[in-house]
Amino acid sequence: MRLFVLLVLILVSACARKKQAAADSDHSADTTSLSVQTSGQKPITADEMVGVWQESPDIGSGYLDHYKLMSDGSFRFVYNEMICDKRTIGYSGTWQILGDKLKLSIFTKSVIVGGKRVPTGGAGSCASDYYIEGGEKKDISFKDFQTITLSEIAVDTAKYDFNRVTFNGKRFWRVSDNP
Fold it and tell me: Which of 66, 87, 104, 168 is deepest in the core (most CB within 10 A)?
């Protein structure tokens, strides 16, 4: 009889743990994040945003889409460096934090002009099937600058740090604090 009671207690305890684990996993799957300027929380500072923010925590043979936010208030956005046949490389300008938003003022667009599209043949660090051979990088200045506001800069609460942020629902990881 004692053995039976002991087995029942172990079974009940195991079921309770399983139920709690399921509740915990449901909570951890929640994508709740802190707003940068939530009351009672320390607002994110410009110093904490300086760095290279990439759309993945891993670095391959080149960066994926990424922002380089410099301490002087300038920025550069560069599209995936492993897509070698693109003509638009990125854009640059100035940045500032306005509440829970990152405001980018774009003054320049970087493009590849000329050259021809050539198959990569599977060689090199290109993830694309082609690259541009003989092209020249050119920076095009905008007569009237463009402004983009990345809303909802949110710090991922999973680790309570500033290593991952969300810009307009898309996660970026700080892969370097020295752009």
Answer: 66
Q: Report how far apart the first and last C-alpha atoms of the chain are (Å, whole number).
A: 69
Q: Give the amino acid at 96.
A: Q
CB 109 within 8 A of CB 142: yes
Q: Name the nearest CA neighbour of 151 among 166, 172, 162.
A: 166
Looking at the chain, how many residues does it have? 179
DSSP string, 103-160: EEEEEEEEEEES-EEEE-TT-TT-SSSEEEES-EEEEEEEEEEEEEEE---EEETTTT
Closest CA to 130 of 141, 119, 140: 119
Cα dihedral 71→43→29→64 (10° resolution): -10
